[in-house]
Amino acid sequence: WCAENCPLSSATIKGTFVHATYHTAVEILEDRLLGVDTEGKIAFIGSGKEVDRLYYPKAHFVVIDVCSEFFMPGMVDTHIHASQYSYAGTALDMPLLQWLNMYTFPVEACYKDLEFARNVYTHVVKRTLRNGTTTACYFATIHTDASLLLGQIANDLGQRALVGKVCMDTNNFIPHYKETPDESELETNRFIGELLKKKYPLVRPVVTPRFAPSCSATLLGHLGEIAQNNDLHIQSHISETKEEVSLVKELFPDYDSYTDVYHRHNLLTDKTVMAHGCHLTDGELKLFRETGASIAHCPNSNISLCSGMLDVRRVLNHKVKLGLGTDVAGGYSPSMLDAVRRTLDTSKALTIQDTQYHTLTFEEVFRLATLGGSQALSLDENTGNFEVGKDFDALRVNTDAAGGPIDLINHGEGPKVESNLLASSGDDRNIVEVYVAGKRVVPFVERP
Ligand code: GUN
Ligand code: FE
């Protein structure tokens, strides 16, 4: 096995692979051989018999034959505030709009200080990688240089990332934490230009209006235009709480709905991901479907801030793309395994309220955490599962890892049970290795 962060070029891995496909929520591939090419892409996946034909003569040959071990695709966090990591797990005693004013804006204002930013951003990228997040869609803050630094840190540590410099020109509570519409437009263009100039292979900019209550129509218009002209991703928040929905109605009285506010500023595209969406109407979900925009389901945050319980089944029935998000620090956990658990919990809470409810299965949620997230971020051409031609973004899981939290005497029930076990009781101790685009990024190699 690679001794350090070397590319997994021409490697062949023999073992069990658990992944989601477009047709099957969880597909188990036992006793397979998976080849990774020099660019970190999956070159082949086949059974033992095919190996003679396919396998590279000079390959590393890795055999995983412990019954508690398997590979799964890396998880995709479709919504996380890197800048809020510094207070994750605290300050969850207020509803959203007060919480933003009391805790979030004062903390985010600190990212003017690049050393403060470097410290927190290094910690959050390392922590999420260690917990199996191979792709993260980040909110930073309004500060361009600190946001660029987040992009650099993700690149240096090997995480695939969409990074957003936050845009907001309305803030009545902390007047120094906002921009003018012109500044925001100018700095967004600078952010995009400078980030693209770095040519980081796995890091992309994402146009990031914070949410409608923090943005004037003028600013939303600028941002829609920037995204359109540069064919960029877009992220924001929508219909997280009922109070917020009422506020948007007040602030934007001439629009049909909250969704219409974004739509009429060209901010709903097939590269848009909107966080929460707990209180969207059927008509709004139809607009999501028509535009190809997706939803980031953030169950920890939705419960922690008492925002609402998103009915994921309803969203899926509308054929709207949906991924999972941790929404640190509205959500207190940066782990996508937590997002999986909370998604199942919320679905079960909805089932308690209505016994006829069609509860999400573990398999469906496994798909949402991996392939679903890649689809929600329009990255599934290259990531999300173990299809030939995609980048090898993968977790080597061992449910029986020494010192880990799972204390089963008898493993050997098969990979379906082992993957379920990871989702219900596992943590980062069970994620023994993490690969992004064929490169091992966890365990970290400390450089002198
Ligand atoms: N809506 C606008 N900004 C935020 C934020 O930082 N966190 C959450 N959860 N919702 C938001
Ligand atoms: Fe958020």
UniProtKB/TrEMBL annotation:
The keyword Phosphoprotein applies. It is an enzyme of class 3 (hydrolase). One of its GO terms (cellular component) is cytosol. It holds the Pfam family Amidohydro_1. Binds 1 zinc ion per subunit. Residues 71-441 form the Amidohydrolase-related domain. Pathway: Purine metabolism; guanine degradation; xanthine from guanine: step 1/1. SUPFAM superfamilies: Composite domain of metallo-dependent hydrolases, Metallo-dependent hydrolases. It comes from the Eukaryota. GO terms for molecular function: guanine deaminase activity; zinc ion binding. One of its GO terms (biological process) is guanine catabolic process. Keywords: Hydrolase, Metal-binding, Phosphoprotein, Zinc. Its cofactor is Zn(2+). It catalyses: guanine + H2O + H(+) = xanthine + NH4(+). Its EC number is 3.5.4.3. NCBIfam families: guan_deamin. Catalyzes the hydrolytic deamination of guanine, producing xanthine and ammonia. Belongs to the metallo-dependent hydrolases superfamily. ATZ/TRZ family. Homodimer. This is Guanine deaminase. It comes from Oncorhynchus tshawytscha. The lineage of its organism: Eukaryota, Metazoa, Chordata, Craniata, Vertebrata.
